Amino acid sequence: MVIKVFLASLSGSTAKQQDVVGFLEALKIDYAQLDIASNEDNRMWMRENVPGEKKPTNGIPLPPQIFNEEMYCGDYETFFEAKEDNTVYEFLGLTPPPGSKKKEIVEAEQNGDAHIAELEEDDPDKKAETDAQDDIAEEEEPAEDDEESRKPAEEEEQEEGEEDRAEDELVSEEEEEELRELEEEEEQASEED
């Protein structure tokens, strides 16, 4: 089975397209890039084979669109969700390689809590999918600071906000005083007349 990724070489959504292609390469999944900008047959096939309920309101699906042979898998948003949920193989209609992480919800009957247990086989390639996701996530998103370094920044922002409000109040008080002085001057001027 070949995964087909319909792309547009002249598209504004190249980052999304590269995200899909880069992730497939990282997982060593065979795929074919089909350009809809330079090949009318590819464009027509893609438009005809995206299910009606998956098409946008204008009826024209935008790349990237992903298929497993003739089976529609999804667009970038559904691909991204599968990537986040660690279910890319299922999304693509492929059998995960031995050692891939799978998540299983386990109901604890004694206390009624649901737990997620990650099951891994003993295989040197067992982290391939997760490692690929981590690598791509590191490229896309800046590393999150730990909680301790975020607290001072949050406190600093709060203090700055309080200082801004205090300045606004000070300006308001000064304006009020100027208005009072003007009113007093006008009263004095009218009394003199």
Automatic annotation (TrEMBL):
PANTHER family: SH3 DOMAIN-BINDING GLUTAMIC ACID-RICH PROTEIN, SH3 DOMAIN-BINDING GLUTAMIC ACID-RICH-LIKE PROTEIN. InterPro entries: Glut_rich_SH3-bd, SH3BGR, Thioredoxin-like_sf. Belongs to the SH3BGR family. One of its GO terms (cellular component) is cytoplasm. SUPFAM superfamilies: Thioredoxin-like (SSF52833). Residues 131-147, 154-193 have a biased composition (Acidic residues). It comes from the Eukaryota. This is SH3 domain-binding glutamic acid-rich-like protein. The lineage of its organism: Eukaryota, Metazoa, Chordata, Craniata, Vertebrata. Residues 116-193 are annotated as: Disordered.
